[in-house]
Amino acid sequence: MSSEQKNYHLQCTGEALETVKQHEAPQDITLFGSCFCPFVQRVWVALEYLDIPYKYYEVDPYKKPADLLEVSPKGLVPGLKLHKYTPARGLNESTVILEYLEDIAANTTKRSLLPTDPYARALVRLQCDHIARSLVPAFYRFLQAQDESAQIEYGQEFRSGLEALAALFERADRDIVQGGGAAGVGEQKALGAGLGLWLEGGDLSLSDVMIGPWIFRASNVLKHYRGFELPTGDKFGAWITRLFAHPAFRVTCSTEELYLDSYERYAQNRPNTSQVANAINAGKPLP
Ligand SMILES: N[C@@H](CCC(=O)N[C@@H](CS)C(=O)NCC(=O)O)C(=O)O
């Protein structure tokens, strides 16, 4: 039945496609991206939020074109090509790229995805650490699991990971905002700056950007292939609504069909799906 198999897409759709069209002109930074990739979406949301000029360039990372390998040695997206250097330089690894963009913005647009207080910054980084080490691998274990018992086990693992993230968000709220001795709503808002969309009235944080793409794929791909429902508690639901509606996030989202088609390979755990899928199957850390 291979003719009926769905494959990954090679062009964005919906709002993401409109954004691509607005970013076709040369800039100092070119983002090498793939429309379905959540690691790319992280970087893309950050570029939008931090208001850094960029050109979007779609590549097929499974074909490993030479221009991608020049900027990203393992041939993984995202990659950045930095044209302000002669010859141009490259940068890869979504988390490293996020830090780089944060540094660029500090000197240019003055926008930031982090709070200013060192302890508050550390709490956001704890959230990011949990996302990278636990939550993202759990997503793939769950999606790639084929037997029912493994799907139940890894579904629970992913759900507990989300609950642990919510607990880390709550801790930042308690320690920084509630414990900050704010006299009124204005001061509370100032203390909460950089702590993310978990807080009512908050704005995007590094951790929202780090996990947002997988929350989005949980809402469509995991729902479709694994019957998964995201936690519905008041705060959790409000956070997701704010995340999906955030302009910097929304404009990087394609339509649901693109994700369902592109992730069928993972859901069926087809051989040679990707380096990420192989690492999950081998019980190794993600590339
Ligand atoms: N650790 C990398 C992971 C990036 C990654 O795995 N990207 C996937 C697309 S979602 C890719 O390029 N896959 C190509 C392959 O598996 O060969 C990052 O954070 O940037």
Describe this structure in words.
By secondary structure, the chain is mainly α. It has two domains: 2-107, Glutaredoxin; 118-281, Up-down Bundle (Glutathione S-transferase Yfyf (Class Pi), Chain A, domain 2), CATH 1.20.1050. 56% of the residues lie in helices and 6% in strands. It is built from 13 helices and four strands. It has helices at residues 14-22, 38-50, 66-71, 94-107, 118-144, 148-177, 185-192, 206-226, 234-245, 247-250, 256-262, 264-267, 275-281, and strands spanning 29-33, 55-58, 79-82, 89-92. A four-stranded mixed beta sheet has the order 2-1-3-4. The two termini are 31 Å apart. The model has no long low-confidence stretch (mean pLDDT 96). Bound molecules: glutathione. Residues 34, 37, 39, 61-62, 75-78, 93-95, 274-276, 287 line the site of glutathione.
What is shown here, in short?
By secondary structure, the protein is mostly helical. The protein has 13 helices and 4 strands.
